Amino acid sequence: MKNNIIIKKSGFVLREKGMGNSHGGAWRPNPNKPDDRRYLGEPDTINRSRYSGKKGGYERDTKIGPGGKATKERHYTDHGRPDKHTDPHDHLIEWNPETGVPLPGPPINYPNGAPTFKLYRKDLDMKINIITESNTPEQNRFTTISDFKWCLKRGGEIEFEWKNKVYCAFGKLQKTPDSEIQMCISEAYKPETEKWCDNADEVLEYKVGEDRLRDVITKVTVWDRTI
Predict the structure, then answer these.
(1) Model pLDDT, residue 158
(2) In this structure, are 180 and 73 located in the same domain?
(3) Is 10 in the same domain as 78?
(4) Whole-model pTM?
(5) Number of domains in the chain
(6) Are residues 121 and 168 in the same domain?
């Protein structure tokens, strides 16, 4: 029967073969980061996962294309910046042709209400694969400055806490609809604290309280990082 929702619990196993790209990229989910699994899966299905950290977390739906790789993702949150993200909002997912790394694009916002998140093929039943595990703050932690820069450069959306304040950093945002894509960092829900940056090194110069982010980035509690 069409349009039924078929739910598969987290025993779902990702294929080990055939998940690279046509240029030989070898990206695979990090076995120590359950959130990575949502980017790969059974073709023409949706992976449903949940970030379960600060303030109850939020759900994510990741659309898996015919090649078994993510093509689009919906976040049911505003990431602490409702002026830049509607709840929900989407991201198109591209894949680096050389490294095979998933590359989330800028947020697609829906100020007048989001359309239904559907599969591409209307003749298929909607299959939703439930991924019950999610990263812990320790698994999300940035182990090096390069790790943080890598995440931002690839379009990561980050929520972290330092000295009882929550901050948001985004790899791909637009200050206005006509401006170029930049990086942005601010305290959560406080757009007046934002800093717009051309690269991750500028983000690292942002002051989180009395500290420079570069000096504490490996010590902050990372509640969420989308890649």
Answers:
(1) 96
(2) no
(3) yes
(4) 0.85
(5) 2
(6) no
